[in-house]
Request: fold
Amino acid sequence: MNYIVGVFKQPCVISVKFADGDTRKQATVKKETGQSVELPVFSSKDTISGEVHIVPAYGKKIDHLGVKIELFGQIGLSLDRGYDFTSLVRELDIPGEIYQHKVYPFEFSAVEMPYESYNGARVKLRYVLRVTVGRNFPSNIIHDSEFWVRNTSPPPEKINPIKMEVGIEDCLHIEFEYSKDKYHLTDVVIGKIYFLLVRIKIKHMELEIRRRESTGSGANTIVETETLAKFELMDGAPVRGESIPIRLFLKNYDLTPTYRNINNKFSVKYFFNLVLVDEEDRRYFKQQEVTMYRLDP
Amino acid sequence: MQNSIPDGFPSTNDQEKLLADALALVQHHAFYMHRALDNNNLQDALKFSAQMLGELRTSKLSPQKYYELYMKTFDELRMLEVFFKEETKRGCTNAYLYEEVQHAGNVLPRLYLLCTVGSVYIRSKEAPAKEVLKDLVEMCRGIQHPVRGLFLRSYLSQISKDKLTDAASEFEGCGGTVVDAVEFVLQNFTEMNKLWVRMQHQGPAKEKEKREKERSELRDLVGKNLHVLSQLEGVDLDMYRDIVLPRVLEQVVNCKDELAQYYLMDCIIQVFPDEYHLQTLDTLLGACSQLQPSVDVKTVMSQLMDRLSVYAASAPEVLAEFSQVEAFSKLSEAVIKVIEVQQDMPLVGAVCLHVALLTFTLRVHADRLDYVDQVLGACVKKLNGVGKVNDSKATKQIITLLSAPLEKYNNVVTVLNLTNYPKIMEHLDYGTNKIMAVVIIQSIMKNGTFIMEADKVEALFQLLKELVQDSDGSPTLDELDEEDFMEEQNLVARLVQMLTNEDNDEMFKILITAKKHFQKGGSKRLGYSLPPLVFSALKLVRRLQEQDKNNEVDKVTFSPQEQGSSTEADEANISPQKVFQFLLQTVDSLSAVPAPELALRLYLQCAEAANDCDLEPIAYEFFTQAFVTYEEEISDSKAQVTSIHLIVGTLQRMHVFGVENRDTLTHKATGYSAKLLKKPDQCRAVYVCSHLFWIEDEGGVQDGERVLLCLKRALRIANAAQQMASVTKGSGGPVTLFVEILNKYLYYFEHGNQHITNAVIQGLIELIVTEMQSENTTQDPTVDAFFASTLRYIRFQKQKGDGVAERYAAIEV
Reply:
């Protein structure tokens, strides 16, 4: 099929091979279509090198105005068309003809990629290597190949526990404690909930991990919240004085580090939401922001 | 999601259906789980097992049904456990598995899986057992639903029980020490108990009773922990005393729940060794008084005392321990305290406690009568605030209380030493008191206990008050059941035989005491109680007499003194005279009852005894009394006949009388005989009187003439009777009387009375023959036979060929 389509649409097959493609770590990323693809993972200051292969269609010859490879960092919001925050170019070939399989090595050394790739509800941040075979007519032949960027950060200097007493007067008073306010992505949340006063019939209690993605600024801010995890902590009605342990392994959930004001475009924040549900299915909750970070592996 | 808490559980039918559905779903998920296990697919196995365990999240099943569901999943989890074990052999670390199962989103399946992996983890010894156990027991706090929590923790207890870091177990050492094991079990126990207690508050108030029943069904889940504790080798006395018991009791006391407190106290007592209980009595008893007022403390404490007493009985050397720890005083203090604290405890409870304490005391300190008395004293104190006990249950318990020492000592005398014993009896109502009195007497009879001291007798009669006399609360005698009354009084009468002492002085004192009490009994009782007393006194007389015979000298020296002080009954030295005085008074009171016939018989009995003692004036006095009684009191003709025969019989044997006295008495007796109402009676009495003049004993009177006189008179009366009969009835009476008189004649004839001659006998025989042939005479075969055999006797004597035969020869038959 591709072959036949190629006959009409693309006169050649372009592919990018990374230098250490076989050994490089892969990230599984979900596309909008629902399919998962594996993408190579890079970090900021990595040198991205490899080869571009151009294979002309059988018996065809390509006249081109030059071949180049670009590296984009792009933030795409669902409503606008996207915005490039990084763009690097390498010319691969001067104008000429390609009539057989041609290989161009390329290298972007120590590329600044300050932002991580991100695939959110409304925001996408992606890095793309674009190979362009320039032509006057028909239009340029373009091939995009995406890669994934993850940046680790050093452990935060100061990690504080979260401790808080909340309640509804004469109804429910609890004290909860999370061991930290900053977690790395494979961290374990340890904590406990201590019941100081219980006058309602609680059915169960769970801990939600929520992600809040905000885009725009000022009055135009749009906030999208997703619940990534629901973790039941307690079953049944506790009495005064009970203390319920929390132990939640984060690595199972698809979390990213907290992103604050990425390129003035968007932020991603994480929250722990402690929810108590009573017998009438009323929900009592308390949300706490936590900072996520990516630790050196 | 089924974890909403409903208003009570659905009906039984629905329960069955719900259970069936749940079981089917478990089966379904288990199938996929098995498939995943077969494929070694850990992730799927975890997923399906979590789904399977999700069925346990239901709130709709009653505890019983929930248990069935639990058992089903329990079996499946065993498979999973095996799989986990295999998985670790394939290179998967336990730590990894332990983390992996914790990703389950729902807390209940997560914890079941965690426990299951934990079990494998401990067994592998890759992590210290204590750490894993501690983590598990902590994490299980996530289940606050009572039933689900109980079952989860029970699962934890189940899988961990062979993995505790007990002394000498394979997990001890780096895995932890026995302290850790104890800590783990205690914590699980505490949490389970909390959940269990909380169960009662779930759901509507109207179903509380049903819920309590269901709760009761789950109690063994909680109690199991105590059992596990008791099985730990490493728990020695010190640890039990310092850690285990205080912690368990703290939980028991603090949970403030009736059902739990009762059950757990019972559990503690049952599962831990008696030796430990003995050494920790303070603590254990201290807790008893802190329990809720509604708790059945008495049963708990009773059980404790019961166990301790069995323990005490097990080995003699243990007894020393009991004294060493002052078990008794501690127990008795505890009993008092518990009764004090539990204001609402019904009386029966308090008494029950005392019964238990008494049983304990009797078993352990049987030799300490003061302890026993102390227990009774404590009970008296309690009863003092109550007055007469009307509660039937309490009464029953008091009877048990009072019977216990009787049964233990088998000896009333011991019991009589208990000063508080009668005080308790005072609190019983009339009927019960009587029952108790009967029990006491029966005990005496059964064991053949002799009561040998006067003060003991006094004490005994205090106990038997209701039987011996009328008191304030008692119904009048008419209201009593005749038969019961007789039976009771017969018992009292039998009792008299047991009041005895070898020592004569003491014996006499006993008699006086007994009489004092009997005399309060009123006329109806005296008839039963005095005769045995009289015979008892007579026995004493005979004993005295024998001693006198053996000790003639003494008698001589003592006689003068006795004369002077004979009225004082309390005089230390006792003589037959004094006893007779006593007898006289006793029988006197009988005749006043009135029971004249009985009195008469007793007078005669006494007279005979006096006769044996050679005390003529006394014997005479008795006879006088007998005659007075006869004259004044006995008016019934039949009774008169009997009495005459008795008098004559007795008088005939008297040898103590001088001629004058004897004449007076015989004269009187003959006179009475002639004055009887019916002729035949007269006749018979008169010929019987003839014996008064013919005494075969050595030195006896043998006045043949007066004998003949009597017989002739009898004959005359017989004639008169015959004539009267022919006048009134138209025909003569039977000749029985004549034949009887003939027999008398023959008797004297044989015994050599010279006044009885052949001729007289011959005449009488002819008279009889004539009478018999006369038309007027009623034919009676028995009389014929009587006469015929008399004649045959004469013929036989004639043929015998000795001295008698010669005399008979002259008589022709």
Notes: The CA atoms of residues 46 and 100 of chain B lie 9 Å apart. The interface with chain A takes residues 3-5, 57, 99, 102-103, 105-108, 110, 138-139, 141-146, 148-149, 194, 198, 202 of chain B (CB under 8 Å).
